[in-house]
Design goal:
It is a single chain. The chain is mainly alpha-helical and 151 residues long. 91% of the residues lie in helices and 0% in strands. The radius of gyration is 35 Å and the shape is rod-shaped. The model has no long low-confidence stretch (mean pLDDT 91).
C-alpha cells in the first residue's frame, strides 16, 4: 500500500497558524477587557468614597473652599469613570471581534481536518480493497493450480 499524502497539508498548516494567532489575539483581548473592567471597578470604589465624603461634608459644618475642591475631585472622578466605562465598552467590542475571528479560524481549520480524516479513510479503504483484490487473485491462482494439477 502506498503512503498516504494529504494534498491540502500546506493549507492545513497555514490555517493552523492562523488559528493560533487568532487564539492569541482573543486571549490578549480578554486580558485587556479584564484590565479595563478592573480599572472601572477601581474608579467605582473611588467614586463611592468621594460620594460618602461629600455626604459627610454636608452633614457637618459647611466650608465652601473645601466643598468646591471636593466637588471638583468628584467631577474629575465622574469623567474618569465615564472614560473607564467607554474603554470597557471598546475592549468588549474588540474581544467580541477577536472571538469571532478565532471561531472563524477554528472553523476553517476544522474543515481541513475533517477533509483529511475523510481522505485518510478513503485511502485506507482503497488500500484494503487492493489488498483484498490481491488476496482474491492469489486464491484464484492457487485454485487454478490445484485444479490443473489434479486434472
Amino acid at each position: 500500500m502506498k503512503r498516504f499524502r494529504f494534498p491540502l497539508r500546506p493549507v492545513a498548516v497555514i490555517r493552523a497558524h492562523r488559528e493560533v494567532r487568532a487564539r492569541e489575539a482573543f486571549a490578549a483581548a480578554l486580558t485587556r477587557l479584564a484590565a479595563a473592567e478592573n480599572e472601572l471597578a477601581r474608579k467605582g470604589v473611588r467614586m463611592r468614597a468621594l460620594e460618602a465624603a461629600l455626604a459627610d461634608r454636608r452633614a457637618t459644618s459647611f466650608r465652601p473652599a473645601e466643598a468646591a475642591l471636593l466637588f471638583a475631585d468628584y467631577r474629575r472622578e465622574c469623567a474618569a469613570e465615564a472614560e473607564a466605562a467607554r474603554l470597557v465598552s471598546v475592549a468588549r467590542e474588540e474581544m467580541q471581534k477577536a472571538r469571532a475571528e478565532y471561531l472563524e479560524a477554528h472553523r476553517q481549520l476544522e474543515v481541513v481536518n475533517r477533509l483529511e480524516v475523510k481522505s485518510r479513510e478513503a485511502h485506507r479503504r482503497s488500500g484494503l480493497r487492493e489488498e483484498q483484490a490481491e488476496m482474491d487473485e492469489l486464491a484464484g491462482q492457487r485454485h487454478q493450480q490445484s485444479f490443473a494439477t489434479s486434472s
